[in-house]
Amino acid sequence: MLNFVLCDDNQNILSKLVKLLENIFIKHDLQAKILLASTEPSEILHFTKNNSVDVLILDINLKHQISGLDLAEEIRSFNRNLYIIFTTAHLEYVMLAYKVKTFDYLVKPISSEKLEETILRLFNDIEISSNQYLNINGKILINQKNILYIKKDGMKIIICTPSKDYSAYSSFNKIEPCLSDNFVRCHKSFIVNLNNILDISDTTIFFAENNSCSIGPKYKIQFLEVLKNGNITKHMDGFN
């Protein structure tokens, strides 16, 4: 799931952009949602600091004390992986926008065709160039840092995050090569994200929001060794 945040000082433009994006998400069955759409840069800054945001669509020429470029630069200082898409009616700002690692810019008035092209290219770019996101069957994109654990359930896998569980027809063999090194097999039916573990008992691993999964006897010694030494590079293969 890609989380979008939108900022424009014109409420009418902002509302139209929300509708266009939601139509694109539905049309292409994209796993994405708009977490916040605001005309206030301070609200955008605070929200982005305290929430998981993947894509920021931002007006360059904000009619506030802070410009869109300044806001993007400040956000980039604590979120290097965020995708930034600028909107502007002033082409002279376009070259300046690239200093904050801009994915694209949209010239106002924004057409649905151009927006759709940019969003689809963004999803494709994430799929091809980054292992930050787990891509399931070409439709479900999940930020790996948000995953607590992955469960095998017959012909399906269930991906557990603090906010939602995702179910898809797939297997551990297919997704293991796509996972970052902090994912480790702890049970025949579970792969866990070491970075999100809160506590461990003799048989159970605990995560946020009262989530938990089991440690299997076959995997316990190696799992605890990995956890102790921090040597987690591709240990999943050794557990098969």
If you had to describe this structure to a student in words, what would you say it looks like?
- The protein is an alpha/beta fold and 240 residues long.
- It folds into two domains: 2-130, Rossmann fold (3-Layer(aba) Sandwich), CATH 3.40.50; 145-239, OB fold (Dihydrolipoamide Acetyltransferase, E2P), CATH 2.40.50.
- The protein is built from eight helices and 15 strands.
- A five-stranded parallel β-sheet has the order 2-1-3-4-5, with helices on both faces.
- Strand 14 and strand 15 (212-214) form a beta hairpin.
- Helix 2 packs parallel to helix 3.
- The longest helix has 18 residues, at 112-129.
- The two termini are 29 Å apart.
In short:
The chain has 240 residues and is of the alpha/beta class.
Which keywords apply here?
240 residues; Rossmann fold; five-stranded parallel β-sheet; 15 strands; 29% strand; disordered C terminus
List the helices and strands and how they pair.
Elements lengths: L1 E6 L3 H17 L4 E7 L2 H10 L4 E5 L8 H11 L4 E6 L5 H4 L4 E6 L4 H18 L3 E4 L3 E4 L5 E5 L2 E5 L4 E5 L2 H4 L7 E5 L2 E4 L5 E2 L3 E3 L5 E3 L2 H13 L6 H4 L1
Parallel strand pairs: 1-2, 1-3, 3-4, 4-5
Antiparallel strand pairs: 6-7, 8-9, 8-12, 9-10, 11-12, 13-14, 14-15
Helix pairs in contact: 2-3
